[in-house]
Amino acid sequence: IAGITQAPTSQILAAGRRMTLRCTQDMRHNAMYWYRQDLGLGLRLIHYSNTAGTTGKGEVPDGYSVSRANTDDFPLTLASAVPSQTSVYFCASSEGTSGANVLTFGAGSRLTVL
Amino acid sequence: AQKVTQAQTEISVVEKEDVTLDCVYETRDTTYYLFWYKQPPSGELVFLIRRNSFDEQNEISGRYSWNFQKSTSSFNFTITASQVVDSAVYFCALSEAPGNYGQNFVFGPGTRLSVLP
């Protein structure tokens, strides 16, 4: 089934540890995104990539980094996790970057930082 | 700056009641797109509808209908004869034409709908 695969589904992490959330899509979408979802705040954009080889910062990029070596993969790295990064993380993709594009989401990765 | 407001944090209704979820947006662009997404208890986000700023026709899809009014900057979502399976968090989102950063979605905080049997 075409779509977005995120891993891990859930993770508990000690503060200060490094963590990479994986995201792979098989739709050949050009653009990919990472959002975090927090109660009462909706979804907030962390980083995005309009096409392979390029990345950009979203609304809440601090403490996170991304890379886009190819079209399919868009990993999100927390270099040194802090408790405020406890959240549900969603990877998404869209075919293009016009305002009309629909975002397709992965199932999410629940991260708890202790 | 663009902004989406969903003033209703939580709504509870009894099955078969009609319910309207409110969405108010702010944008300076004349070209923009509005979306509704559903997040059921399983957690995934499911696309429901997209509407562009030049099309104010209301849309109906089964029990779902959407009312877009540019005059009040609103894009409200009505579920008719609600069912337990409609229980979910619903997000309204705004996307403007791409600028220097490409497509930028802004999501509202979401409305949690509980449909009781």
Give a structural overview:
With 114 residues, chain A is mainly beta. Helix content of chain A is 0%, strand content 47%. Chain A contains no helices and eleven strands. Chain A starts with a strand and ends with a strand. The relative contact order of chain A is 0.33. By secondary structure, chain B is mainly β. Helix content of chain B is 0%, strand content 58%. Chain B contains no helices and twelve strands. Chain B has strands at residues 3-5, 10-14, 19-21, 24-26, 32-39, 46-52, 59-61, 64-69, 74-79, 88-99, 102-107, 111-116. In chain B, strand 5 and strand 6 form a beta hairpin. Classes of the chains: A mainly beta (114), B mainly beta (117). Chain A binds chain B through residues 31, 33, 35, 40-45, 48, 50, 56, 88, 90, 92, 94, 96-108, and chain B through 4, 9, 31-33, 35, 37, 43-45, 47, 50, 52, 91, 95-98, 101-105, 107-110.
Largest interface: A-B, 29 and 27 residues
Shape of chain A: globular
Residue share in helices of chain B?
under 10%
The sequence of SSEs of chain B as H and E is: EEEEEEEEEEEE
Structural class by helix and strand composition of chain B: mainly beta
Q: Could you give the count of β-strands of chain B?
A: 12
Q: What integer is the average pLDDT of chain A?
A: 94
Bin the helical content of chain A.
Answer: under 10%
Give a brief outline of the structure.
The complex is a heterodimer of chains A (114) and B (117). Chain A is mostly beta strands and 114 residues long.
Question: Which short descriptors sum up this protein?
Answer:
heterodimer; A: 114 residues; mainly beta; 7-stranded mixed beta sheet; 4-stranded antiparallel beta sheet; 11 strands; 0% helix; globular; B: 117 residues; 12 strands; 58% strand
